Each structure stands twice: as C-alpha cells, then as structure tokens.
C-alpha cells in the first residue's frame, strides 16, 4: 500500500458497514490513516433529519412563491422568516453530522485525539477547494456534501451562500462514490466533445410544462435547441429509452433523466416506470464503451432503501455514478438546473466544479442536489455549446413550478 | 479508455527472465506474462470486492491455474491503484513478500487459527500521513499468549475465530484478504483421529463467518470435484442468509491459450510494462498449431493437470530448444516435433 501518492482527490474517506452498530471509517491523504468506528444509528438518524429540513426548505419556497403571486406580503414575510429558521435547523443537523463523522466509537483503532488532531483539524487547516471523496459501500446513504463545520451567524442571510461558508460543499469539492473496485485514480475522466453523447430521457409532460414556462427566456430556449440539435429529443417512454440506449451506449457519456422519481424508480408517466432493478438489468454498458454519468433529476433519487438504490445501480462497470436529489424538487427549478448543468459540461469544467458553481449561484435550493459520482469527469471545451449564455438569475427565486413527485 | 485492464502497483517494470513458466505457477513477478485471464480477473475481483461478500470459493480443475490466477492476477489487481485491499503476506528480512497461501491440510481450522495468532501477535505496521504506525491486534487473542492455547480455544469454539477476525478487520486501514489453498484437503485427506469432528468444526466456522459481514475476506481455492460436498457442508449449518459466493475458473480456451503463448512476443507495451524483449518470435501459424495439438491431446484425455499447465511446459521446451540450436529467433514446427512428448501426458 505504499504505492499510494497524492493525486486527485486530495482526501478520500472509505465508509462501510462494520456491523449492525457501526460504520468503519478510513481516511486517506495519499496514505491511509488509522481507521475508526462511528455510530451507524447516529449517522442515519441525522441524515434523515437533514433530508427533512431540505424538504421543509423546498416546501417553504413553494409556499412563498404562491403568496408572491397572490401579492400577500405578510405571508411572504412569514415565509422569509421561516426560511431563516429552516436554514438554522438545517445547519444544526449538518453540524451534527460533522460531529458524528469524527466521533470515535469504542473499539476503534484510532483514538479520539488522533482523529481530531490528525484528520479533522488537518482538513480544517486546508485551504478551500480540496477534492474530498467519500468512497461508500452498500447501504451507506448519507448526504456527505452537507457536512457543516462551524457555527452560523445569527444574522445569516438565507439568500447569501457566503453566510453559510461552513458547508463543506461550498468550501471544498465534495463527492461520494459507490464502486467496490473504483480507485481514486479512476476518477479523472475526460471525454472528447466530438464523441461525447448525452441521452435525455423522462416524462414528456414535464418537459413540455417546463419548456412552456421558459418560452420567453431566449437564452434557455437557445440552449435547449442547441442540445436537442446535437443529441436529439428526449426518450419519453421506457421502450424508447431501451432502444435509444442500445443505439448509443457505446458513445454515451451522460444519461440525463427529468421526471417523476423516488428512491427506487424513475417515471416516464404514471404507469410507465423503471425500477432500480430494471435499470441495472437493462442499461448495461459494453466492455469497451466509456463510463457514463447519470443525472437523475427527479425527487428523492438519493434517498435510502435497504434493498438498494440508484447509488448501487450507477456504481458498477460502465458507469461513474450519478447526481440526484435528497428530497423533492420543484419542476421548473429542476429543469433549469439540469439544463445549466448540461451546458456547463461543454465549457470543459469538471462535474464537481459545475456542481459547486451551480450550488452557489442557485442558492439555497441547490442544496437538494448531491454528487454521488466521479468528481473529476469532464468534457473537452466545445466552442459552440461552451459559449451558450445562461441566465444570470438565481433559479431559487423562481419560477419554481410544482413538485415533480 | 479501457476500465477493465488490471493496473499494477508502482515499481520497476521488468519482465521475468524466462518467457514461460514450465510447471511452476505464475507469481507476483510474472504479472505481464499472465495473459488470457484479464476478464476473469476483473470478474472475480468484483465478486471478492463486493461489500456483501465474506467468503469466496474459487473452484477449478486440477492444474487449471488457480494459484497463478490468484498470485499474478487477482492479488496485483486488488492491491493496485489504491483499491484498499491487502493480502496477508509472508515476511522476508522484515518486509512483506509474497502472499500467504494457508495450506488447508485436513486441519484447516487449526491452520487458520495459527495464522490469525501470528498476525495478531505481529500487529500491523504501515505508513500513514502521521508517520510510521503500529496497530496492536492483541485484543483479537482474547488474552491467550500461546498459539496452542489460542488454537485450542478456536477449535472448541469456532465462532471465536470469527470474532478475532472481526476485531482485526476493525483495526486495519485496509481490507485484509486471507487465502486457504487446496481447500478440498479437508475432505480428501483423512489422516488422524477424530476426522469427522474436525471437519464439522471447520464448517461451523465457515458457516459462522459467511453469515457475518465485516470488511475482511476469506478465499478458499479448491478442486471442482469436491466443490458440491464442500459447499453443502457450509450451507446446511445455517439457515441464515450467507455472504458466500463461488467462482468457477475454467481451463483456458483457444483464444486465451493463444494469447498466453504469444504474450512474450508482443511488440506493444503490456499493461504498464514496455514491450518484451525475449529475442524470439514464432513462425507464422505456429502458436495456432500448438494450441490445436494441445486441444487434440486434451480431447483424447491425454493431458493430466489442465491444458494451461501443459501448454506452459511445452512452449517453454520449444523456446529452450530454440536457444540451444541458435535458430536466429524464429521457432519452426520441425523444432517442436523434435521435442517428443511430455512425460505428463
């Protein structure tokens, strides 16, 4: 193991189930640190509470949008106040997750002092922008990007990400990877824009609704047209998806889904869905084709399930993981976020950088998205799509659309 | 980009001095010569690497190359590229060398207990970002200070070895993999008294180990003809869900044999190695002819010990003969015919 060297990511941390009570945690910074155990129940409980707060944040934003439309100023003011409180509670939970991550359980090889001094405090002392990758095993469903180190100023402004600098996802480049054999040195993947292919799939009605909302927005219409011209129209049934997959999987770099979803299914309509199991059995990459990133832009796609989720389904040969949502997402917001993501890919940015940019720009609802894939995936700069202008607006300020649950 | 090719540990990239192995197994220094098995190595590594996998049964015919597959295929693959796996190693001059293959014999539980005792006594040293570290594993010994006492405890209570291994797994910064070789010996050897009881204790341990799930793996390599009985002996001891998988290592097929024969004459870099320079090449169609001859002999039941073992032997003889007759680097069929038949067919 002394062949390890410092490359991207700067830090990796393996988290896996040790037994019914504990996760085993092994940090590495080039070389590995001593392992330690953390309380599995605490991690899972606080992860659930974080998702609850994100759900409350989305619900409150939707409520505020309705009140704005009704010109109900008092109710809008109340929603703004609630948002502040929801963010406060969210930070408390995320700070608790941080505490739990570095709290040694009995039976650990490393001492508490070792973990605090040599690992936690070392990372605290790092300059921002470090790539930190959580390498997780099955049934470890934790929103690691939302770890929060620090306290929140009482006058923090929920619309200003700079007031929430304790979030690791703002300070560093955080990713989570599930792949038993993935090696950190695999995480740098660069596609040639000449062959990079995106396959869009999802619910036709949701695509249409979102595009209708944006029909006046010339920049986004231009981006939609350009991507469609290059990659074709979305596959909007499971049958067309399977045919399209067979046709293009050898050059496919991104599978982009937009529509109804949950932890175990993605939907094309109320009656046409693809389960995690079917996703795994049907969407298979052939041996020589490049790895494919998946963006599951629907509700709850990163939520836990004891029988397996898209984390496992996209953490296998031919895939490099996925981007998903920790809770429900409003349709128009989600559509715009996904469109911006696809355009930024052609600017030559790495996926983890794109997520960082979008998280900051479309704060705070951007917090619902988590990167559960290889962090350093990129496409070479495309001179045409790469210069597509995107709106300056923060998508969290609306229009949001309805939940796509 | 081919994500499936095994990537290897860093270090000097030198080809072994001999292009073929004869009857000996491939070892950690023969990685570039170990050809034709890459897809199986990746498949098997994925099985072993699955977090839900605890116990792995690697089955194959005698001489199909199980040891080579492990030493020159699986081990370099899993230990390479920061994957976080590590096999228990022998120590030479205080430094880890080749992986320990625990010989099953008819007392495998005792052998495993002895190896665990040694590991726990030695502890585990590694270099962390903090510096040199020594992990104390003595907790896994349950206050036993003598190997005999520890072994007796394990034999009386096989599940205590599972507990020892669990303690070790929690303390190591890597996922440790242990290998038991000649696994069938627990069934095929029957020397000594109390054979049935010893077998029963071993399979109790395996059942208990397979129903647990912690980051430490045990691979048992055994002959296919004993696999069914072996597997059944584990399964029937517990009704709980077991984290056990098996993998059949088949004899090399035609294309794989060809790849293995041609590998030392490659003109391109192989894995992370430069192109080999063994100073010979085959006459056109000769490797295909060798494979054809081997297949015929195998069909007639003339190969004992698997075609890959025989293949290694005869190709090695060809190349040795070529060197002795100074054939300017090209091997012809007449040279081969002059070699005669192997004593092993």
Low-confidence stretches of chain B: 1-10, 340-345
**Poorly predicted runs of 5 or more residues of chain A:** 1-6
Class based on secondary structure composition and strand pairing of chain A: alpha/beta
Q: Total number of helical segments of chain A? A: 11
Label the overall shape of chain A: globular
Order of helices and strands of chain A: EEEEHHHEHEEEHHHEEEHEHEHHEE
Gyration radius over CA of chain A: 21 Å
Helix content class of chain A: 25-40%
Total separate domains of chain A: 2
- Termini separation of chain A comes to 46 Å
CATH topology of the largest domain in chain B: Rossmann fold
Strand content of chain B: 15-25%
The quaternary structure here is heterodimer
What's the N-to-C terminus distance of chain B?
42 Å
Task: Describe what you observe in this structure.
- The complex is a heterodimer of chains A (405) and B (345).
- Chain A has 405 residues and is α/β, with parallel strands linked by helices.
- Chain A has helices spanning 40-69, 73-101, 112-124, 168-171, 204-213, 218-231, 238-248, 276-282, 310-313, 331-345, 351-361; strands spanning 11-17, 22-29, 31-32, 36-39, 131-136, 173-178, 188-191, 197-202, 252-258, 265-267, 273-275, 292-297, 319-325, 369-373, 376-379.
- In chain A, helix 10 (331-345) packs across helix 11.
- Chain A is globular, with a radius of gyration of 21 Å.
- Chain A starts with 10 loop residues before the first strand and ends in a 26-residue tail after the last strand.
- Residues 1-6 of chain A have low confidence and may be disordered.
- Chain B has 345 residues and is α/β, with parallel strands linked by helices.
- Helix content of chain B is 41%, strand content 16%.
- Chain B has helices at 38-49, 66-79, 108-122, 147-156, 159-171, 185-188, 195-210, 224-235, 254-262, 286-299, 307-325, 333-337; strands spanning 55-60, 85-87, 89-92, 95-99, 101-103, 124-128, 131-135, 175-181, 216-223, 244-249, 281-282, 330-331.
- In chain B, helix 9 crosses helix 10 (286-299).
- Residues 1-10 and 340-345 of chain B have low confidence and may be disordered.
